[in-house]
Amino acid sequence: MKEMATTEAVGQVLCHDLTQIIRDKKKGPAFRKGHIIQEEDIPVLLSMGKDHIYVWEKDENILHENEAADILYRMCRNEYMEPSEVKEGKIEIKATRDGLLKIREDRLLKVNLLGDMMIACRHNNTVVKKGEVLAGTRIIPLVIEKEKMELAKEAAGEQPLLMLKPIQPKKAGIVTTGNEVFYGRIKDTFTPVVEKKFEEFGAEVTMKTLVGDDKENIRQAILNMIAQGAEVVVCTGGMSVDPDDRTPGAIAATGAEVITYGAPVLPGAMMLLSYYHREDGQVVPILGLPGCVMYARRTIFDIMLPRVLADDRISKEEIARLGVGGLCLGCPTCTFPNCGFGKA
User: Per the CB 3.0–4.6 Å rule, which of 5, 225, 227, 294 could disulfide with 190?
Assistant: First the structure.
């Protein structure tokens, strides 16, 4: 770039967008990168406070802000994302379908630590709708060295920094446990709550059964549902440490890989997460839900369910990390998921 007096710039090519702000009327680019300055533009530029402007001097080792922002966008995207129009060196990344946003946080940190560039994202594991903004990219200066953008590509690695995983309309089974419900002593008010949670994501509860507090019967009910095609099984009730609560032992007895029994989340500390590996290679998540899911507005189930439906494998370490952000404040007006619950 070279700086020159605006009054002498007729015929020169702008190397960046110039923003015009008129209170209560306009905030946006009055002139775009590449615009050839005309005589009639001079009064407008001066009214914008531009007594001097930068015009383009081509350098093969330098990238303009718009070109660099596009490189950052391409480092981020997967097939379910699209860019906004580049404005003032900024690109917004938008979802082209509903899904679960995943972020490679370690790689993103490396890119942002390079300086002179930035990628700002929504929280990891956020459920998003088609058309929503996922992230924004830009470089800080007007131009940047090509070499530095190559370092950014290296820091990002070969995989996209962001991934949008479609949430699948899985077939779900609910095993409701407890002698009090099985023998009709009380009404089952748990199953309708869980069904509604699945419906929020387009999943269908195709199988439901009531089982008493018998470990073998619970185990067999789970396996029967998997044999009949259930792609996720949820067990309600019987998740505490009381002697009559047999659900955790029954889930383990199916041969499922138990990831965790217990989580640093309130409400939802007594949740169990496991994965059953079928002989055909399909993996079926099995969750044991504590009683709080029945009466609390939002619980650990709301954090886990979209990830389960998106086939996003959840590790024990990830659940342990929920200790930061895992406390629901039970606000009088719930704004979940637009709050800190379940977010690091």
Answer: 294
Q: How distant is the alpha carbon of residue 329 from its chain centre?
A: 21
Phi, psi (5° rounding) for residue 236?
A: -110, 135
User: What is the pTM for the complete model shown?
Assistant: 0.83
- Number of other CB atoms surrounding residue 315 within 10 Å: 11
Summarised one tens digit per residue, pLDDT across range 283-300 is 999 999 999 999 999 999
pLDDT tens sequence across 221-275: 999 999 999 999 999 987 876 655 789 999 999 999 999 999 999 999 999 999 9
Alpha carbons 289 and 267: distance in angstroms, whole number: 11
Residue with tokens 């560039």: 117
Which residues of the chain carry a pLDDT beneath 70?
A: 58, 241-244
pLDDT at residue 303, rounded to an integer: 97
Residues 6+ apart with CB under 8 A from 326: 263, 264, 265, 266, 300, 341, 342
Q: Long-range contacts for 309-312 (Cβ within 8 Å, ≥24 apart)?
A: 309/167, 309/168, 309/169, 309/170, 309/201, 309/203, 309/232, 310/99, 310/100, 310/165, 310/166, 310/167, 310/168, 311/165, 311/168, 312/100, 312/102, 312/125, 312/165
Q: Which long-range contacts (CB under 8 A, 24 or more apart) does 137-140 make?
A: 137/69, 137/72, 137/73, 137/76, 137/90, 137/91, 137/93, 138/65, 138/68, 138/69, 138/72, 138/88, 138/89, 138/90, 138/91, 139/65, 139/68, 139/69, 139/72, 139/89, 140/115, 140/116
